[in-house]
Amino acid sequence: MPPDHGRLYFLLIVLVLTTTVRFPATSAVELPKFREAPAFRNGRGCPRTAWSSLDQHSHYNPSIIHIAMTLDNTYLRGSIAGVFSVLQHAICPENIVFHFIAASHHNRRPSDHLRHVITSTFPYLTFHLYHFDSNLVKGKISYSVRRALDQPLNYARIYLADILPSGVRRIIYFDSDLIVVDDVAKLWNINLGRRVLGAPEYCHANFTNYFTPKFWSNAAFAASFKGRRACYFNTGVMVIDLWKWREGKYTEKLEHWMRVQKRCRIYELGSLPPFLLVFAGDVEGVEHRWNQHGLGGDNLEGLCRDLHPGPVSLLHWSGKGKPWLRLDSKRPCPLDSLWAPYDLYRHSSLFSDS
């Protein structure tokens, strides 16, 4: 091969290698872009109040509503829609504090990209971003019927009492695939009484289906529900008294069942069954209107579903089918049109000079 051709060949190889190395690094930090939401202001009669995470032992203020949600690239579009819906329907939106939890991997904290997305989309929002160490649960997770349920961040709800400041007494936990169409203060103000957790219960569901035959054939395991009228509840909408949670060491109780699962395979559905094992039968019931769940269909096919009978304050696309994916694919379910008005995603132009 002539020398000039050899140099040309060498430069071509360098160019290909350089392009191959740089492409993943650029795409790894690319997040969806969203339109800026309008400023939502308190209505007349809302108390003026403020909360700071710097005051770790601040006095409990029931006028401040604390909401926890997770943030990740996959469900970011759903999280943004959820926040937008909460603010739009709240009478006192300026009294709402959001606590966002993002995963960190291999001792690497998430970059500032997620924070930038929130501040640019909701410039007037009071929020705090926390980092969830995935290593806390990686050794405790066993595979389930759907890969999304196996992600470490799906288990962050178990550690809210450890992640959030001690000054946060009560929290509403919301999944990232729901919208609120009512004033969230109504959910916030439910009376938990002596209980740690409140959620809509569904006692008509076949409770045995949430655990394997191995669980029910083991007398010691099955006896864990003795004396309790155990009913199914969906962990995507929960009101939690974090002070009572810490006092009762409920994180350790949930982790116990996760370790049992690793040894014995007693359930199939991610982070839900441990909550059922610990809390079912001891949940403060909330009106069903606050979790019209299952709109994403089942965990395998995600087929279209209708609303449950009765009033609606919250629509929840739990299950495999997510409204933003079905809308983008031009194959939406009828109820996905109810989610669409809260979608702040900035779609790229149909035509581009590039």
Automatic annotation (TrEMBL):
Keyword Membrane appears in the UniProt entry:
yes
Q: Which SUPFAM superfamilies match?
A: Nucleotide-diphospho-sugar transferases (SSF53448)
Q: Which PANTHER family match?
A: GALACTURONOSYLTRANSFERASE-LIKE 3-RELATED (PTHR13778:SF13), GLYCOSYLTRANSFERASE 8 DOMAIN-CONTAINING PROTEIN (PTHR13778)
One GO CC term on file = Golgi apparatus
Give the EC class as a word.
Answer: transferase
Q: Which Gene3D superfamilies does the UniProt record give?
A: Spore Coat Polysaccharide Biosynthesis Protein SpsA, Chain A
By what name is this protein known? Hexosyltransferase
Location relative to the cell: Endomembrane system
